Amino acid sequence: MKSSKFLFLILMVLSTSVCFGSNNDIWTKANTAYDQGDFSSAIDGYRKLLEHGHRHPAVYYNLGNAYFKKGKIGLAIAAYGHSLKIDPSFKLAR
Fold it and tell me: How far is CA 89 from the centre of its chain?
């Protein structure tokens, strides 16, 4: 439940501060997949956004959460680290 609230918060932040343009559908699908417990699809979506150049701390944060849910702790920590590298003040990634 807590992670869904964080995900919703991130979605709200990104909807006002980052324009995904044609990739907005990927963002929405990845978030929906995460909410439905389909963490593999969520990971694929967040990675696609990164491949398309959307290097926002929230994308890495959500990717880290999805990796964590899949039990891939090392990859989760790395994703959170990328998030903090972009924005050291991004408190959710801490």
Answer: 16
> Model confidence over 13-60: pLDDT tens digits?
555 344 556 677 899 999 999 999 999 999 999 999 999 988 899 999
In three-state secondary structure terms, 90 is coil
Helix axes 73-86, 57-69, angle to 10 degrees: 170
Model pTM score: 0.77
Alpha-carbon gap, residue 19 to 91, rounded angstroms:
21
Task: Tell me how far the alpha carbon of residue 44 is from its chain's centroid.
Answer: 11
Count of C-beta atoms within a 10 Å radius of residue 84: 18
Class of residue 83 by CB neighbours under 10 A (exposed 0-12, middle 13-18, buried 19+): buried
3-state class of 55 per DSSP? coil
Place of tokens 């978030």: 31
